């Protein structure tokens, strides 16, 4: 059974930090490109960060460059999103996404809420 389970969301003050985790199971995590998306109320889902299957390549949305860091631990089947210098506009539900490098599967987690507010 395929599962992507996000955790680590919550309420944080502006300027604060959070680390999101996404635990994967039921598929070949080490052969998957992993992505973090977010969706704010009334807005379309936005790609935040991407990491290659080996972790050797990453890319970020302009709005989070220099503040967010995506990483992965393949033996632990987990991908992370370290979020620093958080702003109110980072408030959203954050989703983990897995794309099969060879098979092309497309799996989603259930999302975790991040709220940045004083």
Q: Could you provide a short overview of the structure?
A:
By secondary structure, this protein is an all-beta fold. The protein has no helices and 11 strands.
Please give a structural write-up.
The protein is an all-beta fold. It contains no helices and 11 strands. It has strands at 3-7, 10-12, 18-25, 32-39, 46-51, 58-60, 68-73, 78-83, 92-100, 106-108, 112-116. Strands 2, 4, 5, 6, 9, 10 and 11 form a 7-stranded mixed sheet that branches. A 4-stranded antiparallel sheet has the order 1-3-8-7, with no helix packed on it. Strand 5 and strand 6 (58-60) form a beta hairpin. The chain is globular.
Quote the beta fraction. Answer: over 45%
Order of helices and strands: EEEEEEEEEEE
Q: Uncertain spans, ≥5 residues at pLDDT below 50?
A: none
Oligomer: single chain
Distance between the first and last residues' Cα: 40 Å
**Content-based structural category:** mainly beta
- Give the total of beta strands: 11
Taking Cα atoms only, what radius of gyration do you get, to the nearest Å?
Answer: 14 Å
Biggest sheet details:
7 strands, mixed
Molecular shape = globular
| Whole-number mean pLDDT | 97
Count of alpha and pi helical runs = 0
- The helical percent reads under 10%
């Amino acid at each position: 059974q395929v599962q992507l389970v996000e955790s680590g969301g919550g309420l944080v003050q502006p300027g604060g930090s959070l680390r999101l985790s996404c635990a994967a199971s039921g598929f070949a995590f080490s052969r998957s490109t992993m992505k973090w998306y977010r969706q704010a109320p009334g807005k379309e889902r936005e790609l935040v960060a991407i990491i290659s299957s080996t972790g050797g390549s990453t890319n970020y949305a302009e709005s989070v460059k220099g503040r967010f860091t995506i990483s992965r631990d393949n033996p632990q089947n987990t991908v992370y999103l370290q979020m620093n210098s958080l702003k109110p506009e980072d408030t959203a539900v954050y989703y983990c996404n897995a794309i099969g490098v060879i098979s092309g599967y497309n799996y989603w987690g259930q999302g975790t809420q991040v709220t940045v507010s004083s």
